[in-house]
Specification:
Structural class: alpha+beta
Largest sheet: 9 strands, mixed
Radius of gyration: 29 Å
Number of strands: 20
Strand content: 15-25%
């Protein structure tokens, strides 16, 4: 039975009927609706209330993301600058260069001594002894020079009879940080850089980078997550990780590059972006160019419904919003059960391990068999291994906070989509008394009065994401908010969760969005495996191979910019009038 503690509290509301799944040691209670959802395979747009269009008549056929390289995303900085990877070079560091120069110029350093230092740094030699003078200032400069040229070594002054010598050995783990202080000449504690990635989530790319340099992922920061199935370029920062260290990753990691390094006094912060610039190829277009041009002109003029796209709701058989509902209800064991569900038709190897978990509750055995790509499941199983299922709340905390927040935000997004679709079905694109608009100078909102209706268009209207600190529209939508939340056992006030991470204050989101800086061109091709857009890395390396040809197949290249948190796939959906879910797009690939 649920208690009212922070870990076990259940928010007030209607509690749906639940049934048990799993072995006795790992039982969780899920609703029939949740069970049906996770057992039904991949989500489609209608499952998350993506059902309306701005222009129902205008459409043309086209495959979205037939190749991940058909979808290029470049982040737009707050100053409006489109971020590109243009250099892999490491910036010069004056003090370090001066120190290296000093070491090379000192007359005491023979070729033999330098060779010994090299061997010591590689672990081939236990130590190197350098004879020096009794001049303390000169010895200090020598220590600094050795530290700069060989940061993996540590040096100390020792007495050798009446003489002083500098004794050099490899640095131990306990004092490596002391022997490698952060130079003030860098101008800040944060290395800012451009992250280029292909077919990787932003969080996964950061975790991989951190692993290779033996650092914590929490040292890194970025403004926003980018699509996995795409080629993306974005700004990032790392606390006290040098450009030199990051640049070495370019030799080790596949489909990741870092560059355009600089140092700053501040980290990059979540949301510190203006939006994103997209370059997209739609393949296998059947219609005449005049039809395509008409559709794109309509998108440019009329915009699209600012739905949360399918990426928001997860790519596995388990919708992220179902896990979010469990977390918001403080049903910790249920959340674990949903994340580790064996009902995964598309991932038989993962389903096998999750079935083992459901049958045995043996986290250690499951960890040995779980595929390495399943980072969330592995983190959760490690939490279970450490805390046990009786402390399910702490088990879940083994998953990064950003991922846990993704689950609860996914539920917010589902409610937003449902509300918007219901509103459009009932009131079309009319502005209503009581609708909300946002002040340009601040994040505050105001109601539209009857008299003010002529002053606003549907492009001004914002719709709240449910939360305990939002103002609701003062019209029929207010009733819809409360009834939809009640169906799931929540109230607006109840979204102020006892666990701070899961407390949802809410926000405001434009109902419609117009893409900006729209342009497009028509292409032909024959080989579906050949890239049709030049990436930043190809431009940097001069490796782009495609040249315009008279092919039999038609494609359209579309370029546009969107504000942050708007989904390009929802703009493309307005053009093609097809389901943008991966499950449906895969069927188009199969028949292309």
């Amino acid at each position: 039975m649920a208690t009212k503690s922070a870990r076990e509290s259940t928010e007030e509301g209607t509690e749906p009927k639940r049934r048990k799944i799993g072995a006795d040691s790992v039982q969780s209670l899920v609703t029939e609706q949740e069970l049906a959802t996770v057992s039904g395979g991949h989500l489609r747009e209608e499952d998350v209330a993506i059902v309306e269009w701005v222009n129902r008549q205008s459409r043309f056929s086209g495959i979205i993301k037939q190749r991940y390289s058909d979808f290029l995303v470049n982040e737009i900085a707050p100053d409006g600058r489109v971020i590109h990877l243009t250099s892999l070079a490491v910036p010069d560091e004056p003090e370090r260069e001066e120190a290296k120069s000093l070491l090379e110029e000192e007359s005491f350093l023979s070729e033999e001594i330098e060779q010994q230092l090299e061997e010591t740094s590689r672990g081939e030699r236990e130590s190197t002894t350098i004879k020096t003078s009794n001049d303390k200032l000169k010895r200090g400069r020598i220590h600094e020079a050795i530290k700069a040229k060989f940061p993996q070594l540590e040096s100390s002054t020792k007495d050798d009879g009446e003489e002083k010598v500098i004794y050099v050995v490899r640095a131990t783990k306990s004092n490596k940080s002391r022997r490698n202080p952060w130079p003030k000449s860098r101008g800040g504690d944060y290395c800012r850089f451009v992250l280029y990635k292909e077919y990787k989530d932003t969080a996964d790319a950061i975790s991989l980078m951190a692993k290779f340099i033996n650092a914590k992922p929490t040292l890194f920061a970025f403004a926003g997550s980018k699509d996995k199935r795409a080629v993306t370029v974005q700004a990032a920062s790392a606390y006290r990780v040098s450009a030199e260290t990051l640049a070495k990753l370019n030799e080790k990691l596949r489909n990741i590059r870092v560059g355009n390094f600089s140092y700053s006094n501040s980290p990059l912060r979540l949301g510190e972006l203006e939006g994103n610039r997209f370059q997209i190829i739609l393949r296998n277009v059947k219609e005449d160019t005049s039809v395509v041009d008409s559709c794109l002109a309509s998108l440019q003029d009329k915009g699209f419904i600012n739905y949360y796209g399918m990426q928001r709701f997860g790519t596995s058989s388990v919708p992220t919003y179902e896990v979010g509902k469990a977390l918001l209800s403080s049903r910790w064991q249920d959340a674990i059960g949903l994340i580790l569900t064996p009902l995964r038709k598309d991932e038989p190897d993962v389903a096998k391990v999750c079935s083992l978990w459901s049958d045995t509750g043996n986290a250690s055995k499951c960890l040995k068999q779980m595929p390495k790509r399943c980072t969330i499941e592995i983190q959760l199983l490690k939490g279970i291994q450490r805390f046990g299922m009786k402390d399910a709340w702490n088990c879940l905390n083994a998953i990064p906070r950003s991922t846990r927040l993704m689950y609860v935000h996914s539920y917010q997004s589902l409610i937003w989509n449902r509300l918007v679709s219901r509103r459009l079905q009932q009131f079309q694109f009319n502005v209503l008394p009581g609708d909300l608009v946002q002040h340009k100078e601040s994040s505050s909102v105001k109601e539209i009065s009857e008299e003010e209706l002529p002053c606003y268009t549907i492009f001004d209207v914002v719709v709240p994401l449910p939360g305990h600190d939002v103002k609701l529209p003062q019209n029929q939508m207010e009733e819809w908010y409360n009834s939809m939340l009640k169906e799931d056992g929540f109230t607006l006030a109840g979204l102020k969760h006892r666990v701070k991470d899961y407390s949802l204050s809410g926000a405001y989101r434009k109902l419609l969005v117009k893409p900006t800086d729209v342009d497009w061109s028509h292409l032909t091709y024959d080989d579906v495996t050949v890239s049709l857009i030049e990436t930043d890395l190809q431009k940097l390396e001069g490796s782009f191979a495609h040249r315009p040809s008279e092919g039999q197949l038609k494609a359209v290249r579309v370029n546009f910019s969107l504000p942050s948190s708007s989904y390009a796939t929802m703009a493309l959906r307005e053009l093609t009038k097809t389901d943008t879910s991966s499950a449906f797009q895969t069927t188009l690939n199969a028949t292309a």
